[in-house]
Amino acid sequence: MAASQFDRTADFLGLDNAVRERCKWPKRLITVTVPIQRDSGETEVFFGYRVQHHLSRGPVKGGLRFHPDVNLGEVAALAMWMNWKCALMDLPYGGGKGGVSCDPRQMSEHEMESVTRRFATEILPFIGPETDVMAPDMGTNAQTMAWITDVYSTHKGYLAPDIVTGKPVELQGSQGRDMATGHGVAFLITRAFSKLKIKEKDASAIIQGFGNVGYHAARTLSRYGVSIRGISDVTGAVWNEAGIDVDKLKEYADKTGGVIGFPDAAPIDPDDLLIQPCDALVPAALERVINDKNAQQLQCRVLAEGANGPTTPNADAIIEQRDDIFLIPDILCNAGGVTVSYFEWVQNLQRYQWTEEEVITKLETKLETAFEKVIWFSEQNKTPHRVSALALGISEVAATKSIRGLFP
Protein backbone atom coordinates (compact mmCIF):
# COMPACT_ATOMS: atom_id res chain seq x y z
CA MET A 1 0.00 0.00 0.00
CA ALA A 2 2.71 2.47 0.98
CA ALA A 3 4.77 1.76 -2.14
CA SER A 4 1.75 2.00 -4.48
CA GLN A 5 0.70 5.30 -2.89
CA PHE A 6 4.23 6.62 -3.34
CA ASP A 7 4.42 5.50 -6.98
CA ARG A 8 1.09 7.11 -7.81
CA THR A 9 2.13 10.39 -6.19
CA ALA A 10 5.62 10.34 -7.73
CA ASP A 11 4.00 9.88 -11.16
CA PHE A 12 1.75 12.85 -10.47
CA LEU A 13 4.73 14.98 -9.38
CA GLY A 14 6.85 13.81 -12.32
CA LEU A 15 9.82 13.13 -10.03
CA ASP A 16 13.14 12.61 -11.75
CA ASN A 17 13.97 8.91 -11.49
CA ALA A 18 17.25 9.46 -9.64
CA VAL A 19 15.54 11.42 -6.85
CA ARG A 20 12.48 9.16 -6.97
CA GLU A 21 14.47 6.02 -6.22
CA ARG A 22 16.34 7.72 -3.38
CA CYS A 23 13.07 8.91 -1.84
CA LYS A 24 11.40 5.52 -2.04
CA TRP A 25 13.91 3.19 -0.44
CA PRO A 26 14.76 3.29 3.30
CA LYS A 27 18.23 4.31 4.43
CA ARG A 28 18.51 1.50 7.00
CA LEU A 29 16.62 -1.71 7.74
CA ILE A 30 17.80 -3.17 11.03
CA THR A 31 16.90 -6.64 12.31
CA VAL A 32 18.06 -7.88 15.71
CA THR A 33 17.45 -10.89 17.91
CA VAL A 34 16.04 -10.18 21.37
CA PRO A 35 16.74 -13.10 23.73
CA ILE A 36 15.23 -12.95 27.22
CA GLN A 37 14.71 -15.29 30.14
CA ARG A 38 10.98 -15.82 30.74
CA ASP A 39 9.57 -15.92 34.26
CA SER A 40 9.38 -19.70 33.86
CA GLY A 41 13.18 -19.84 33.57
CA GLU A 42 13.09 -20.71 29.88
CA THR A 43 14.99 -18.63 27.33
CA GLU A 44 13.03 -17.29 24.36
CA VAL A 45 14.32 -15.36 21.36
CA PHE A 46 12.16 -12.67 19.76
CA PHE A 47 12.90 -10.69 16.60
CA GLY A 48 13.11 -6.93 16.62
CA TYR A 49 13.13 -4.41 13.78
CA ARG A 50 13.91 -0.75 13.23
CA VAL A 51 13.60 0.99 9.86
CA GLN A 52 15.03 4.47 9.28
CA HIS A 53 13.52 5.76 6.09
CA HIS A 54 15.50 8.98 5.65
CA LEU A 55 17.73 11.28 7.68
CA SER A 56 17.97 14.01 5.02
CA ARG A 57 15.79 16.47 6.96
CA GLY A 58 16.81 15.46 10.49
CA PRO A 59 16.70 12.46 12.84
CA VAL A 60 14.08 9.83 12.12
CA LYS A 61 10.97 9.83 14.28
CA GLY A 62 8.52 7.01 14.81
CA GLY A 63 6.90 4.59 17.18
CA LEU A 64 7.94 1.24 18.61
CA ARG A 65 5.26 -1.46 18.63
CA PHE A 66 5.09 -4.83 20.37
CA HIS A 67 2.74 -7.21 18.55
CA PRO A 68 2.86 -10.84 17.39
CA ASP A 69 2.38 -9.86 13.73
CA VAL A 70 5.18 -7.27 13.56
CA ASN A 71 7.43 -7.88 10.54
CA LEU A 72 10.00 -5.95 8.55
CA GLY A 73 7.65 -5.12 5.67
CA GLU A 74 5.02 -3.60 7.97
CA VAL A 75 7.63 -1.56 9.83
CA ALA A 76 9.14 -0.31 6.55
CA ALA A 77 5.73 0.84 5.29
CA LEU A 78 4.98 2.68 8.53
CA ALA A 79 8.41 4.35 8.42
CA MET A 80 7.71 5.53 4.87
CA TRP A 81 4.34 7.03 5.84
CA MET A 82 5.95 8.71 8.83
CA ASN A 83 8.52 10.31 6.52
CA TRP A 84 5.84 12.01 4.42
CA LYS A 85 3.85 12.88 7.55
CA CYS A 86 6.77 14.73 9.17
CA ALA A 87 7.50 16.61 5.93
CA LEU A 88 3.82 17.55 5.51
CA MET A 89 3.72 18.89 9.09
CA ASP A 90 7.00 20.78 8.54
CA LEU A 91 8.77 18.87 11.31
CA PRO A 92 12.58 18.50 11.02
CA TYR A 93 12.42 14.72 10.99
CA GLY A 94 12.66 11.73 8.71
CA GLY A 95 10.45 8.68 9.14
CA GLY A 96 11.22 5.76 11.42
CA LYS A 97 9.38 2.79 12.86
CA GLY A 98 10.28 -0.19 14.98
CA GLY A 99 8.80 -3.24 16.57
CA VAL A 100 9.34 -6.53 18.33
CA SER A 101 7.40 -9.60 17.32
CA CYS A 102 5.97 -10.56 20.71
CA ASP A 103 2.58 -10.66 22.46
CA PRO A 104 2.42 -8.20 25.38
CA ARG A 105 -0.87 -9.78 26.53
CA GLN A 106 1.00 -13.01 27.28
CA MET A 107 3.94 -11.36 29.07
CA SER A 108 4.51 -10.14 32.62
CA GLU A 109 5.77 -6.63 33.30
CA HIS A 110 9.18 -8.09 34.10
CA GLU A 111 9.28 -9.85 30.73
CA MET A 112 8.17 -6.67 28.96
CA GLU A 113 10.98 -4.78 30.65
CA SER A 114 13.49 -7.46 29.63
CA VAL A 115 12.39 -7.31 25.96
CA THR A 116 12.50 -3.51 25.96
CA ARG A 117 15.92 -3.21 27.57
CA ARG A 118 17.48 -5.92 25.39
CA PHE A 119 16.01 -4.43 22.20
CA ALA A 120 17.27 -0.96 23.17
CA THR A 121 20.72 -2.37 23.90
CA GLU A 122 20.90 -4.17 20.55
CA ILE A 123 20.08 -1.01 18.55
CA LEU A 124 22.14 1.45 20.64
CA PRO A 125 24.64 2.06 17.78
CA PHE A 126 21.81 3.30 15.55
CA ILE A 127 19.80 5.60 17.84
CA GLY A 128 20.34 8.99 19.44
CA PRO A 129 18.65 12.41 19.85
CA GLU A 130 20.07 13.50 16.48
CA THR A 131 19.72 10.10 14.77
CA ASP A 132 16.58 8.20 15.80
CA VAL A 133 14.00 9.22 18.41
CA MET A 134 11.43 6.53 19.30
CA ALA A 135 7.92 6.88 20.78
CA PRO A 136 5.17 4.55 22.04
CA ASP A 137 2.95 2.66 19.60
CA MET A 138 0.75 -0.43 19.68
CA GLY A 139 1.59 -2.56 22.72
CA THR A 140 4.01 -0.03 24.23
CA ASN A 141 3.53 2.98 26.50
CA ALA A 142 5.21 5.66 28.59
CA GLN A 143 6.79 3.03 30.84
CA THR A 144 8.40 1.39 27.80
CA MET A 145 9.92 4.74 26.87
CA ALA A 146 11.17 5.18 30.46
CA TRP A 147 13.07 1.88 30.23
CA ILE A 148 14.66 2.91 26.91
CA THR A 149 15.60 6.28 28.41
CA ASP A 150 17.30 4.46 31.29
CA VAL A 151 19.24 2.11 29.00
CA TYR A 152 20.50 4.94 26.80
CA SER A 153 21.23 7.29 29.72
CA THR A 154 23.13 4.57 31.61
CA HIS A 155 25.21 3.93 28.49
CA LYS A 156 25.96 7.66 28.09
CA GLY A 157 26.56 8.34 31.78
CA TYR A 158 23.98 11.14 32.08
CA LEU A 159 20.22 11.60 31.78
CA ALA A 160 19.30 11.96 28.10
CA PRO A 161 15.52 12.56 28.01
CA ASP A 162 15.64 13.58 24.34
CA ILE A 163 16.37 9.98 23.24
CA VAL A 164 12.63 9.16 23.15
CA THR A 165 9.28 10.92 23.37
CA GLY A 166 6.04 9.83 24.98
CA LYS A 167 7.84 9.46 28.33
CA PRO A 168 6.26 9.91 31.76
CA VAL A 169 6.05 13.59 32.73
CA GLU A 170 8.35 12.77 35.66
CA LEU A 171 11.10 12.01 33.12
CA GLN A 172 10.55 15.30 31.26
CA GLY A 173 7.74 13.99 29.09
CA SER A 174 5.36 16.54 27.62
CA GLN A 175 2.00 17.63 28.90
CA GLY A 176 -0.74 16.69 26.42
CA ARG A 177 1.19 13.85 24.75
CA ASP A 178 -1.29 11.08 25.63
CA MET A 179 -4.24 12.94 24.12
CA ALA A 180 -2.37 14.46 21.17
CA THR A 181 -3.26 12.05 18.35
CA GLY A 182 -6.93 11.64 19.29
CA HIS A 183 -7.36 15.35 19.99
CA GLY A 184 -5.82 16.13 16.60
CA VAL A 185 -8.24 13.74 14.85
CA ALA A 186 -11.22 15.44 16.50
CA PHE A 187 -9.88 18.93 15.79
CA LEU A 188 -9.43 18.17 12.08
CA ILE A 189 -12.94 16.70 11.90
CA THR A 190 -14.29 20.06 13.07
CA ARG A 191 -12.26 21.76 10.33
CA ALA A 192 -13.83 19.40 7.78
CA PHE A 193 -17.28 20.07 9.27
CA SER A 194 -16.64 23.78 8.79
CA LYS A 195 -15.89 23.23 5.09
CA LEU A 196 -19.08 21.15 4.74
CA LYS A 197 -21.23 23.60 6.78
CA ILE A 198 -21.99 20.94 9.42
CA LYS A 199 -22.56 22.15 13.00
CA GLU A 200 -20.97 20.05 15.73
CA LYS A 201 -24.11 20.05 17.90
CA ASP A 202 -26.06 18.47 15.03
CA ALA A 203 -23.36 15.96 14.05
CA SER A 204 -22.76 12.29 14.86
CA ALA A 205 -19.66 10.10 14.79
CA ILE A 206 -18.64 6.43 14.80
CA ILE A 207 -15.28 5.38 16.26
CA GLN A 208 -13.64 2.11 15.20
CA GLY A 209 -11.07 1.37 17.91
CA PHE A 210 -11.17 2.42 21.57
CA GLY A 211 -7.49 2.54 22.41
CA ASN A 212 -5.60 5.74 23.10
CA VAL A 213 -6.43 7.37 19.75
CA GLY A 214 -10.05 6.27 19.56
CA TYR A 215 -10.83 7.18 23.16
CA HIS A 216 -9.37 10.68 22.99
CA ALA A 217 -10.94 11.32 19.57
CA ALA A 218 -14.35 10.28 20.94
CA ARG A 219 -13.88 12.25 24.16
CA THR A 220 -12.83 15.43 22.38
CA LEU A 221 -15.62 15.16 19.81
CA SER A 222 -18.12 14.72 22.66
CA ARG A 223 -16.82 17.90 24.25
CA TYR A 224 -17.34 19.69 20.95
CA GLY A 225 -20.98 18.57 21.07
CA VAL A 226 -20.80 15.71 18.56
CA SER A 227 -22.95 12.65 19.37
CA ILE A 228 -20.88 9.44 19.49
CA ARG A 229 -23.33 6.77 18.33
CA GLY A 230 -21.07 3.76 17.84
CA ILE A 231 -17.74 2.52 19.20
CA SER A 232 -15.86 -0.75 18.68
CA ASP A 233 -12.73 -2.47 19.99
CA VAL A 234 -11.24 -5.98 19.87
CA THR A 235 -14.14 -7.38 21.94
CA GLY A 236 -16.93 -6.13 19.66
CA ALA A 237 -19.00 -3.04 18.97
CA VAL A 238 -21.80 -1.09 20.67
CA TRP A 239 -24.42 1.29 19.30
CA ASN A 240 -26.76 3.91 20.76
CA GLU A 241 -28.69 6.19 18.40
CA ALA A 242 -29.09 8.75 21.18
CA GLY A 243 -25.35 8.86 21.87
CA ILE A 244 -22.83 7.06 24.10
CA ASP A 245 -21.33 8.54 27.27
CA VAL A 246 -17.65 8.12 26.36
CA ASP A 247 -16.28 8.45 29.91
CA LYS A 248 -18.75 5.88 31.25
CA LEU A 249 -17.82 3.49 28.44
CA LYS A 250 -14.11 3.99 29.19
CA GLU A 251 -14.68 3.20 32.85
CA TYR A 252 -16.65 0.08 31.88
CA ALA A 253 -14.02 -1.06 29.34
CA ASP A 254 -11.20 -0.59 31.86
CA LYS A 255 -13.04 -2.80 34.36
CA THR A 256 -14.20 -5.54 31.96
CA GLY A 257 -11.49 -5.50 29.29
CA GLY A 258 -13.64 -4.20 26.42
CA VAL A 259 -16.73 -2.34 25.26
CA ILE A 260 -18.92 -5.39 24.64
CA GLY A 261 -21.71 -5.76 27.17
CA PHE A 262 -21.88 -2.04 27.99
CA PRO A 263 -25.37 -1.67 29.51
CA ASP A 264 -26.15 1.74 27.99
CA ALA A 265 -25.73 0.60 24.36
CA ALA A 266 -26.79 -2.31 22.17
CA PRO A 267 -24.34 -4.75 20.56
CA ILE A 268 -23.79 -4.44 16.81
CA ASP A 269 -21.62 -6.35 14.35
CA PRO A 270 -18.27 -4.48 14.05
CA ASP A 271 -18.40 -4.70 10.24
CA ASP A 272 -21.94 -3.31 10.18
CA LEU A 273 -20.88 -0.47 12.48
CA LEU A 274 -18.63 0.95 9.75
CA ILE A 275 -21.49 1.38 7.28
CA GLN A 276 -24.03 3.05 9.58
CA PRO A 277 -25.12 6.64 8.75
CA CYS A 278 -22.95 9.26 10.46
CA ASP A 279 -21.28 12.58 9.82
CA ALA A 280 -17.79 11.37 10.79
CA LEU A 281 -16.35 7.86 10.61
CA VAL A 282 -13.05 7.39 12.45
CA PRO A 283 -11.11 4.17 11.77
CA ALA A 284 -8.65 4.44 14.67
CA ALA A 285 -7.25 0.95 15.10
CA LEU A 286 -6.40 -1.47 12.30
CA GLU A 287 -5.01 -1.30 8.77
CA ARG A 288 -7.17 -2.06 5.71
CA VAL A 289 -10.58 -1.92 7.44
CA ILE A 290 -12.00 0.27 4.65
CA ASN A 291 -11.75 -1.95 1.58
CA ASP A 292 -13.42 -2.74 -1.73
CA LYS A 293 -16.07 -4.78 0.11
CA ASN A 294 -17.47 -1.89 2.17
CA ALA A 295 -16.28 1.34 0.52
CA GLN A 296 -19.39 1.64 -1.63
CA GLN A 297 -21.61 1.16 1.43
CA LEU A 298 -20.09 3.90 3.60
CA GLN A 299 -22.64 6.48 4.75
CA CYS A 300 -20.32 9.02 6.37
CA ARG A 301 -19.76 12.63 5.32
CA VAL A 302 -16.18 12.71 6.68
CA LEU A 303 -13.72 9.80 6.76
CA ALA A 304 -11.05 10.66 9.32
CA GLU A 305 -8.16 8.18 9.31
CA GLY A 306 -6.98 7.97 12.90
CA ALA A 307 -5.09 4.74 12.17
CA ASN A 308 -2.24 4.25 9.70
CA GLY A 309 -3.33 2.74 6.37
CA PRO A 310 -6.99 2.01 7.21
CA THR A 311 -8.10 2.45 3.58
CA THR A 312 -6.89 0.16 0.81
CA PRO A 313 -5.97 1.50 -2.67
CA ASN A 314 -9.04 -0.24 -4.15
CA ALA A 315 -11.26 1.47 -1.58
CA ASP A 316 -9.55 4.78 -2.36
CA ALA A 317 -10.56 4.41 -6.00
CA ILE A 318 -14.18 3.77 -5.02
CA ILE A 319 -14.29 6.72 -2.62
CA GLU A 320 -12.73 9.03 -5.22
CA GLN A 321 -15.30 7.93 -7.80
CA ARG A 322 -18.15 8.50 -5.35
CA ASP A 323 -16.92 12.03 -4.63
CA ASP A 324 -19.29 12.50 -1.67
CA ILE A 325 -16.91 11.73 1.21
CA PHE A 326 -14.49 14.30 2.66
CA LEU A 327 -11.31 12.29 3.34
CA ILE A 328 -8.80 13.38 5.97
CA PRO A 329 -5.86 11.11 5.03
CA ASP A 330 -3.86 9.34 7.73
CA ILE A 331 -0.59 11.24 7.28
CA LEU A 332 -2.51 14.41 8.16
CA CYS A 333 -5.30 13.09 10.38
CA ASN A 334 -3.17 11.26 12.95
CA ALA A 335 -0.21 13.66 12.82
CA GLY A 336 -1.04 15.09 16.24
CA GLY A 337 1.03 12.42 17.97
CA VAL A 338 4.28 13.05 16.12
CA THR A 339 3.73 16.81 16.32
CA VAL A 340 3.50 16.79 20.12
CA SER A 341 6.39 14.30 20.17
CA TYR A 342 8.35 16.99 18.32
CA PHE A 343 7.27 19.50 20.95
CA GLU A 344 8.47 17.11 23.67
CA TRP A 345 11.85 16.70 21.94
CA VAL A 346 12.20 20.50 21.67
CA GLN A 347 11.35 20.90 25.37
CA ASN A 348 13.95 18.26 26.26
CA LEU A 349 16.63 19.98 24.17
CA GLN A 350 15.80 23.31 25.83
CA ARG A 351 15.33 21.78 29.31
CA TYR A 352 12.17 23.90 29.55
CA GLN A 353 8.65 22.52 30.04
CA TRP A 354 5.49 23.93 28.44
CA THR A 355 1.98 23.87 29.90
CA GLU A 356 -0.73 21.65 28.42
CA GLU A 357 -2.52 24.73 27.10
CA GLU A 358 0.64 25.86 25.28
CA VAL A 359 1.12 22.38 23.78
CA ILE A 360 -2.47 22.00 22.55
CA THR A 361 -2.57 25.55 21.17
CA LYS A 362 0.64 24.99 19.21
CA LEU A 363 -0.66 21.59 18.03
CA GLU A 364 -3.90 23.04 16.68
CA THR A 365 -1.98 25.81 14.90
CA LYS A 366 0.26 23.24 13.18
CA LEU A 367 -2.68 21.04 12.19
CA GLU A 368 -4.71 23.98 10.87
CA THR A 369 -1.80 25.10 8.69
CA ALA A 370 -1.25 21.62 7.23
CA PHE A 371 -5.00 21.08 6.70
CA GLU A 372 -5.38 24.32 4.76
CA LYS A 373 -2.29 23.48 2.65
CA VAL A 374 -3.76 20.11 1.69
CA ILE A 375 -7.18 21.57 0.83
CA TRP A 376 -5.60 24.39 -1.19
CA PHE A 377 -3.35 21.97 -3.10
CA SER A 378 -6.28 19.67 -3.78
CA GLU A 379 -8.44 22.50 -5.14
CA GLN A 380 -5.64 23.99 -7.24
CA ASN A 381 -4.58 20.68 -8.80
CA LYS A 382 -7.93 18.85 -8.83
CA THR A 383 -6.38 15.96 -6.90
CA PRO A 384 -7.82 13.73 -4.14
CA HIS A 385 -6.90 14.71 -0.58
CA ARG A 386 -4.61 11.71 -0.10
CA VAL A 387 -2.60 12.47 -3.23
CA SER A 388 -2.43 16.13 -2.19
CA ALA A 389 -1.11 15.33 1.30
CA LEU A 390 1.41 12.82 -0.04
CA ALA A 391 2.51 15.19 -2.81
CA LEU A 392 3.25 17.96 -0.31
CA GLY A 393 5.25 15.61 1.92
CA ILE A 394 7.12 13.76 -0.83
CA SER A 395 8.01 16.92 -2.74
CA GLU A 396 9.50 18.41 0.45
CA VAL A 397 11.76 15.37 0.93
CA ALA A 398 12.66 15.27 -2.78
CA ALA A 399 13.61 18.96 -2.74
CA THR A 400 15.86 18.44 0.29
CA LYS A 401 17.60 15.48 -1.35
CA SER A 402 18.10 17.43 -4.59
CA ILE A 403 19.61 20.39 -2.72
CA ARG A 404 21.95 18.24 -0.63
CA GLY A 405 23.01 16.21 -3.68
CA LEU A 406 24.29 12.64 -3.86
CA PHE A 407 27.38 11.79 -1.82
CA PRO A 408 29.93 10.20 -4.20
UniProtKB/TrEMBL annotation:
What GO biological process terms are annotated to this protein in UniProt?
L-glutamate catabolic process
Domain of life, per UniProt, equals Bacteria
Q: Where is this site: Important for catalysis?
A: D137
* Catalytic residue list: K97 (proton donor)
InterPro entries, per database record: Aminoacid_DH-like_N_sf, Glu/Leu/Phe/Val/Trp_DH, Glu/Leu/Phe/Val/Trp_DH_C, Glu/Leu/Phe/Val/Trp_DH_dimer, Glu/Leu/Phe/Val_DH_AS, Glu_DH, NAD(P)-bd_dom_sf, NAD_bind_Glu_DH
UniProt cross-references to Pfam families, sorted A to Z: ELFV_dehydrog, ELFV_dehydrog_N
Q: Signal peptide: which range, if any? A: none
Domain Glutamate/phenylalanine/leucine/valine/L-tryptophan dehydrogenase C-terminal residue range list:
174-405
Where along the chain is substrate bound?
Answer: K61, K85, S341
Q: Which UniProt keywords apply?
A: NAD, Nucleotide-binding, Oxidoreductase
PROSITE patterns in the record: GLFV_DEHYDROGENASE
Q: Name one GO molecular function term.
A: nucleotide binding
Q: Which residues are NAD(+)-binding?
A: T181, N212
The UniProt entry's sequence similarity note says: Belongs to the Glu/Leu/Phe/Val dehydrogenases family.
Q: What protein name does the entry list?
A: Glutamate dehydrogenase
